[in-house]
Amino acid sequence: MHKQDAIHLDQLCPKISNKSWRHSLYKLTEYKCIYCGKPSESLDHLHPKSKGGKSNTSNCVPCCLVCNGKKSDSEVLSWYRKQNFYDPRRSMAIRAWYNNDLRLASVLLKYIN
Are 33 and 63 in contact (CB under 8 A)? Predict the structure, then answer.
């Protein structure tokens, strides 16, 4: 059997693939909200789905339910700058994530208490 002919479990059951993808995103932020640092319970679209945002790795970030609800369909960086928990290091991590540089985003988040 050739590698390209193999059928993988995630192809047979997309929910497993989706769960694995979500888990990998949560691991990048150490299961913390990218915005405020509290435990992450959901994924937020940096560029809102209502404005054409896609559900892909560079657009979905782990966040808490409070931040997800407050941000709603706002533009992420302008919303984040107005929050009382604003941190320029987190802002740089958000920008790196949005630019699909998840490695840089992860490193920046590790330097935040």
Answer: yes
